[in-house]
Amino acid sequence: MPRTIRAARLRRGALCTLVAAAGTVALALPASAHVTVSPSEATAGGYSTLTFKVPTESDTASTTGVDVQFPAEAPIASVTVQPKPGWTYTVTKGTPSKPLTSHGTQINEIITKITWTAQDGGGIRPGEFDTFNVSAGPLPEGVDQVVFKALQTYSDGEVVRWIDVAAPGGAEPEHPAPAITLTAGKGSGHGAGGADADEASTSAGAEEGTSQSATAGSESDGTARALGITGLVLGLLGLGAGAFALISTRRRA
Asked: Where are the beta strands (DSSP E) in the chain?
């Protein structure tokens, strides 16, 4: 066999291998996840159940601490925490940066931070995720979004800071902070007037929000996992094809 033909086949086999490897990486990337909050949108002046989803991205350590900060510049009058088996939580309070009224009452103290800590060597193991729920409201009015900066602590002492805020129209930062977009409500919201009617529906809305958050999270995980598996399968097939081409070329040579 002429040397030029053998060289061309070797180059073709190497190219197949590189393309397969690149495809594996590209398709597996969507399976990676960040600390997020759902729902992604909520009504300004209303109440919502916020679900913070925390995946463990380390291959060797578990997530043992989650710290979520509530913005002082966009204070929320009422925040309650859903207890979570295997975890304890600590609430930090502070003074709102601007006058805040809820149901006609002046609010002088708000929650500024919630810290969850795993008990007895537990936590979120590598390759797993968990969720942490709070009920919050009335959500601030006059702002486009609420950003919840978060810290994720691992059992090996590493702390990942999910605190970067993306610029409008810019690319997603490396460690984006969880955030929800606020939309204008159809009614009067939870101001000094009209609060009682909305208060009556808070419990039902919280349950519905939790269900929708769980469904959305499940669908997102399923999609990411499916894309990752598809990428790995295609990559393995490509690697096999490249190896077969190299072996065939050497035998013919």
From this structure: 36-38, 41-43, 48-55, 63-69, 78-81, 87-94, 100-102, 105-107, 110-118, 129-137, 145-147, 150-154, 159-162, 179-183
pLDDT at 155: 97
Distance CA 66, CA 154 (A): 9
Residue 136 contacts residue 146 (beta carbons within 8 Å)? no
What are the DSSP calls for 81-107, one per residue?
Answer: E---TTEEEEEEEE--SS-EEETTEEE
Report pLDDT digits (tens) over 61-90. 999 999 999 998 899 999 999 999 999 999
User: In angstroms, how far is CA 109 from the centroid of its own chain?
Assistant: 28
Burial of residue 139 (CB within 10 Å: 0-12, 13-18, 19+) is buried
Q: How many helices (H) and strands (E) does the chain have?
A: 3, 14
* Rounded Cα–Cα distance for residues 41 and 145 (Å): 9
pLDDT tens string 209-218: 444 444 444 4
Nearest one of 140, 90, 133, 84 to 112, comparing CA atoms: 90
| 107-159 residue pLDDT tens | 889 999 999 999 998 999 999 999 999 999 999 999 999 999 999 999 999 99
What is the b/e burial string over 203-229, where b = at least 16 CB atoms within 10 angstroms of the residue's CB? eebbeebbeebeebbeeeeeebeebbe
Q: Exposure of 150 by Cβ count < 10 A (0-12 exposed, 13-18 middle, 19+ buried)?
A: buried
Written as six digits, the tokens of 169 are 């129209």
